[in-house]
Design goal:
two-stranded parallel sheet, globular, 34% strand, 11 strands, alpha+beta, five-stranded mixed barrel
Length: 204
């Protein structure tokens, strides 16, 4: 095969890989802080214990058993547990990855915003946007614990209201995005903000 033909074939294969990558990439509308609170029935810091993947309606779903470390708002109690259902997983030799889903790793604590799912399980509100892993800058100092946005959310676009507000001369403040409210902040600060906003949001 000539060098020119090899170059053309290589460019074609690279193009195909880029197309496949773009097709699989997840693009979601960025969830607002008020929207995340309103659509959730519970907010809590949880730690995954175990997970089970099953086939449902031709797709793989994973049920993760989590321990409630710190309930913040809603219907989960301290010291309790729950099952959280996410799309994707591995059953036998078949695995499915769903971009934009939360990633629940055993032993890795996260703040989850949850709503009722099927068969007594919960689902994460706004998928990966409703998960905020707990990070310690210094493992020996719990005071350094803070939340970070999930890296599994995929590409995000601004909601229409936020886009309009950015170019508007109206005096009303733009809606805050959930990731901007939580990312990089200490656990207690976020917990207090959730608790203060929970009742007014759910009273509407």
């Amino acid at each position: 095969m000539s060098v020119a033909r090899r170059w053309v074939l290589g460019a074609f294969l690279l193009g195909m890989l880029l197309v496949v990558g773009d097709a699989r990439a997840s693009v979601s509308i960025a969830v607002t802080w008020d929207g995340l609170l309103r659509e959730s029935t519970a907010a809590a810091i949880v730690t995954p214990i175990e997970a089970r993947s099953v086939w449902e309606d031709g797709r793989i779903y994973t049920y993760t058993h989590v321990r409630v470390e710190r309930p913040i708002a809603g219907d989960l109690g301290a010291g309790g547990d729950a099952w959280v259902r996410t799309m994707g997983g591995v059953v036998g030799k078949i695995g499915q990855i769903v971009d934009g889903e939360p990633v629940l790793v055993p032993g890795q604590s996260s703040l989850l915003f949850l709503h009722a799912g099927p068969v007594g399980a919960y689902e994460v509100t706004a998928r990966g946007q409703g998960q905020f892993p707990v990070v310690l800058d210094d493992p020996k100092n719990p005071a350094t614990a803070h939340f970070v946005r999930s890296t599994s959310v995929g590409a995000l676009v601004l909601p229409r209201a936020a886009t309009s507000a950015a170019g508007s001369t109206s005096a009303s403040p733009p809606q805050r995005l959930a990731a901007d409210v939580v990312h990089g902040r200490a656990i207690d600060d976020v917990a207090h903000e959730i608790a203060d906003a929970w009742k007014p949001t759910h009273a509407q």
